[in-house]
Amino acid sequence: MPLPAPYLRLLQAFDALPGVGPQAAGRLTQFILMGNQNGQGNNAHGNDAGSELAQAILAAGETLVMCERCYRYAMQSVCDDCAGHEQGGTLWVVENTEAQLSAENRGWRQLFVLHGLLSPVAGIGPAQLHLPQLRQRVAAEGVAELKLLLSQGVEADVTTQFIQDLLADLPVTVERLQEEPEYGTA
Ligand SMILES: [Zn+2]
Q1: Are residues 90 and 145 in the same domain?
Q2: Residue 102 Cα, ligand 1 centroid: separation in angstroms?
Q3: How do residues 77-121 score in pLDDT, each as one tens digit?
Q4: Is 87 found in the same domain as 23?
Q5: Which pLDDT score is estimated for 117?
Q6: Residue 11 region by backbone torsions, left for phi larger than 0, else alpha for psi between -120 and 50, else beta
Q7: How far is ligand 1, taken at its centre, from the CA of residue 12, in Å?
Q8: CB 124 within 8 A of CB 155
């Protein structure tokens, strides 16, 4: 008997997620469906993980936006940090939300979140990382110093080079922090 269509749909949805793969997708599908056995709505862990996951995805999609200035995830179009923002000085450019939290923990609030690195293979270009908006902000606010907090690797090197070239004609210095980030690699 072939697997029912809803099962395959869920399996394929997990398989399409980055870094999951067919085997883990199978395990996740089984884990979620355990909650539906006998119509109990509870899985072996005593909670309805499937319903919670579905609702969390919907709620995030319906309520979260990216701040139009720093691209943090926020509940409104300008986040709290940007609402009372300072301008100029130093701007930290961070790779993702993990790096954002790491930066905020150190008291660095003037941020710009890339949500990735340039990757032609994955189809991620300057527009996806909002790099034109980064240039606009640096120019408009007179940012004097840009510090990049990125993971190690070729994509981070390429992204660094691109940003340096992008801002070459502006009076701003670009420095990449060479420490190993606490948040790990992308
Ligand atoms: Zn913001």
Answers
A1: yes
A2: 16
A3: 999 889 887 778 999 999 999 999 999 999 998 999 999 999 988
A4: no
A5: 96
A6: alpha
A7: 34
A8: no
Q: Could you list the residue range(s) of the whole structural domain that residue 40 is in?
A: 5-63
Q: How far is the CA of 37 from the centre of ligand 1 (A)?
A: 44
Single pTM value for the model: 0.80
Q: Are residues 34 and 78 in the same domain?
A: no
Judge if 54 and 72 occupy the same domain: no
**pLDDT of 146 over the 80 cut:** yes
Mean pLDDT (whole number) for 24-52: 73
Instruction: Taking residues 160-181, report their average pLDDT.
Output: 90
One domain, residues 70 and 150: yes
Mean pLDDT, the chain, whole residue set: 89
State the distance from the centre of ligand 1 to the C-alpha of 31, rounded, in angstroms.
37
CA of 160 to the centre of ligand 1 (A): 22
Going from the Cα of 44 to the center of ligand 1, the distance in angstroms, rounded, reads 41
Question: Quick check: 133 and 166 in contact, CB under 8 A?
Answer: no
Q: 48 CA distance to ligand 1 centroid (A)?
A: 34
CATH number at residue 30: 1.10.8.420
Token pair listed for 170: 């502006």
Task: Classify residue 184: in a domain, yes or no.
Answer: no
Residues 6 or more apart in contact with residue 76 via CB below 8 angstroms: 65
137 CA → ligand 1 middle, Å? 12
What's the rounded Cα separation, in Å, for the pair 54 and 59?
9
Query: How far, in Å, from the CA of 70 to the mean position of ligand 1?
Result: 4
